[in-house]
Design goal:
Layout (H helix, E strand, L loop, with lengths): L1 H27 L2 E11 L3 E8 L2 E8 L8 E5 L2 E8 L4 E8 L52 H6 L1 H4 L3 E15 L2 E7 L10 E5 L8 E13 L5 E11 L2
Parallel strand pairs: 3-6, 9-11
Antiparallel strand pairs: 1-2, 1-4, 2-3, 5-6, 7-8, 7-10, 8-9, 10-11
């Protein structure tokens, strides 16, 4: 009898360990479990007010048939503070853009990445799937001593990977407070194989039209998640006074 009791206890403990391991694996995979509290449908997207571990948050996902009260799962997500929806004429203090949700946690898979070098993330409009293109400006900004051109940077990208570079250019876009950083686009009039725009990740501020000199570290094939993939980007950029 003692043998059978011990066997039953062992089976129960083994089953519990497997369950704990499965839950642990899910947590490590970054899957979020939420309950839908409010659904707002617009032309191409679904806004969902959800609860996760007692915390209320808003999600924005490509259009789905969602229902209030149901449990959904999603993986990854990009936080956008103070996001203004033009279609709803409403500003969300914080909203998370996710690639998709599912009632089945095992169905959550990584979606195709989108190169946001072609997207102005500060003016995303959920009512439209169109993405503004970067335009090459008719400008000519000469380098200064110790700096390189955007053409040189792209042409010799491998050479500069992980190194600090100095670049002078004109600010063509400024997107503040995205993922707790400011994002600056500069051009200097040069290009290499059609690449003429340089993205900077920084704590600095700048205005469109400013001519600036920056120093920062070159990163290649940088993936910030949720489609924020850059073939080349300059991080920790600082303005050179």
């Amino acid at each position: 009898m003692k043998f059978y009791i011990s066997l039953i206890i062992s089976i129960v403990l083994l089953s519990a360990c497997k369950t704990e391991k499965k839950e642990s694996d899910k947590n490590k995979s970054g899957i979020h479990k939420v309950i839908a509290k409010e659904i707002i449908q617009v032309k191409d997207y679904t806004y969902m007010k959800v609860m996760e571990d007692g915390i209320e948050k808003w999600l924005a996902v490509p259009s789905i048939e969602a229902e209030e009260g149901k449990t959904y799962y999603f993986k990854n997500g990009m936080e956008m503070p103070n996001f203004e929806s033009r279609e709803l004429k409403r500003t969300f203090p914080t909203i998370y853009f996710v690639e998709g949700v599912s009632t089945n946690p095992d169905a959550i898979i990584t979606q195709n990445k989108v190169d946001t070098n072609t997207v102005d993330v500060n003016t995303i409009d959920l009512s439209s799937k169109s993405k503004p293109k970067l335009e090459k400006k008719e400008i000519e900004v000469k380098p200064i001593e110790g700096s390189i051109t955007i053409e040189q940077l792209y042409k010799n990208a491998k050479q500069y990977e992980g190194k600090t570079v100095k670049v002078r250019g004109e600010v063509t876009k400024f997107n503040p407070a995205i993922m707790n950083k400011n994002w600056i686009h500069i051009q200097d009039g040069t290009e290499n194989n059609g690449k003429f725009d340089l993205t900077l990740v920084t704590n600095e501020e700048a205005k469109i039209g400013d001519i600036i000199v920056i120093e920062g570290i070159v990163s290649l094939n940088k993936d910030f998640g949720y489609g924020y993939f850059y073939e080349l980007i300059v991080e920790n950029a600082e303005l050179v006074k």
